[in-house]
């Protein structure tokens, strides 16, 4: 007979106890929906008080295979050092008894230490109920009263204990799943932190100092691990190399792709004899071999001659950098080829641009132009052009601050959802070009 059928039977056959069975029916719903230890103990005590007019109760859950006490309604602080004792003695004691039972003379019983209760000496009778759960757990309910319990009380206690067992088991499973999630989350956080540290070691720690050029950097990853790549370095003291890229994906997969991009790029870009298009060709081949087919990157790489200001570059599918001339005109640098890591027969060509005194070169990732505000508007190329034009006469730090402020104002200082990287290079003096 199910508890529901038992409740209906008692309500029909014994109207005097109908109210107590209704309390039990209502309490079952609350008890089985509870997943917190303290809340469960409080809920059980409330139901027992309403049903039996007593708050003197104890609920235990024991793992029969290990004799560990999994749940104690008194809480862990009941024990010395907050460590529950072994439940072997209690299990053996329960096995020797004919439970469920009504113990009418509580004071004459030899109770195990673990159920020794300060109210035992004051109680006249007790309900002692043990219910096995899935052959692994044993639920024990002890209810004390200063009056005498009867068989109706015992039926109520048995029905209550079964639902307490269901609730406690569900609570234990919930705790295990929660703890597993916490452990996995902590492990993932540690992995992300480590991957972020590794990634940061791949990026330049400082901006190179080059006569005639001033540089500044904006780097704002949206997560612990960013998907943007950038680099700035000198070659044989005759050239300045600048690069900015974006790898597909975020987190650890993006970090792996970025590490592959860094390795491929640096192996060839640091060779003064390699022109940008050759670097792209070889980086593409290495990424094809080192990454999955759905992992690719965009990259812009350019080299400035420190003698004559000639800027040779190659753009592999990246948002085109711009040059804001001293007179305010804008040139975009788009010559190059396809993205890296997706096409085995990709070809790349070099572009050329002359840098002059007062020109501002801006390399950026799509996190800048694709930044959106609450009205779902994008920052876009036009706003970028406008900001750079308005502050082109400022220092590179002034240009950097103006762009940062514009992005914050555009998004109303809300969190930006994508990585943002910007390299700003300003020509501070004329180059020595041969006269024709």
Structure, explained:
With 436 residues, the chain is α+β, with helices and mostly antiparallel strands. 38% of the residues lie in helices and 23% in strands. Strands 7, 8, 9, 10, 13 and 14 form a 6-stranded mixed sheet that branches. Helix 1 (3-13) packs antiparallel against helix 2 (18-32), helix 2 (18-32) runs antiparallel to helix 3 and helix 6 packs across helix 7. The mean pLDDT is 84.
Please outline the helices and strands.
Blueprint: H1 3-13, H2 18-32, H3 37-52, E1 57-63, E2 68-72, H4 88-95, E3 101-103, E4 125-133, E5 137-145, H5 151-202, E6 213-220, E7 228-235, E8 239-247, H6 251-269, H7 276-290, E9 297-305, E10 310-316, E11 322-324, E12 330-332, E13 336-337, E14 351-354, E15 360-364, H8 366-369, H9 380-391, H10 396-410, E16 420-427
Parallel strand pairs: 10-13
Antiparallel strand pairs: 1-2, 1-5, 3-4, 4-5, 6-16, 7-8, 8-9, 9-10, 10-14, 11-12, 11-15, 15-16
């Amino acid at each position: 007979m199910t508890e529901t059928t038992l409740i209906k039977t008692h309500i029909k056959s014994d109207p005097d106890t109908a109210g107590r069975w209704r309390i039990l029916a209502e309490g079952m719903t609350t008890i089985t929906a509870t997943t917190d230890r303290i809340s469960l103990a409080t809920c059980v005590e409330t139901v027992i008080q309403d049903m039996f007019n007593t708050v003197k109760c104890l609920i235990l859950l024991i793992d029969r295979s290990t004799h560990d006490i999994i749940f104690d309604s008194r809480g862990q602080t009941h024990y010395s050092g907050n460590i529950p004792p072994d439940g072997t003695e209690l299990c053996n004691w329960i096995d020797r008894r004919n439970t469920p039972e009504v113990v009418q003379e509580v004071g004459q019983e030899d109770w195990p230490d673990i159920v020794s209760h300060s109210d035992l000496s004051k109680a006249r009778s007790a309900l002692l109920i043990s219910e096995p759960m899935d052959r692994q757990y044993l639920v024990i309910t002890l209810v004390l009263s200063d009056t005498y319990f009867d068989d109706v009380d015992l039926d109520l206690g048995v029905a209550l204990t079964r639902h307490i067992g269901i609730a406690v088991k569900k609570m234990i499973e919930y705790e295990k799943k929660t703890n597993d999630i916490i452990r996995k989350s902590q492990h993932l956080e540690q992995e992300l932190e480590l991957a972020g540290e590794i990634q940061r070691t791949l990026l330049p720690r400082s901006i190179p100092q080059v006569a005639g050029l001033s540089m500044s950097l904006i780097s704002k990853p949206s997560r612990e691990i960013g998907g943007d790549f950038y680099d700035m370095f000198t070659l044989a003291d005759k050239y300045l190399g600048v690069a900015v890229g974006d790898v597909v994906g975020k987190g650890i997969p993006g970090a792996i792709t970025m590490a592959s991009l860094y390795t491929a790029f640096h192996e060839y870009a640091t060779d003064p004899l390699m022109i940008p298009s050759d670097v792209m060709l070889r980086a593409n081949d290495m990424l094809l071999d080192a990454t999955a087919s759905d992992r690719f990157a965009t990259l812009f790489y350019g080299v400035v001659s420190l003698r004559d200001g000639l800027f040779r570059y190659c753009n592999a599918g990246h948002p085109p950098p711009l040059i804001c001339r001293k007179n305010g005109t804008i040139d975009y640098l788009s010559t190059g080829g396809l993205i890296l890591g997706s096409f085995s027969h990709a070809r790349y060509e070099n572009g050329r641009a002359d840098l002059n005194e007062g020109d501002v070169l801006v390399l950026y990732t799509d996190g800048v132009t694709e930044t959106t505000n609450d009205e779902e508007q994008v920052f876009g190329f036009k706003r970028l052009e406008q900001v750079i034009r308005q502050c082109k006469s400022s220092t590179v730090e002034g240009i950097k601050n103006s762009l940062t402020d514009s992005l914050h104002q555009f998004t109303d200082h809300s969190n930006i959802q994508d990585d943002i990287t910007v390299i700003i290079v300003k020509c501070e003096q004329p180059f020595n070009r041969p006269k024709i």
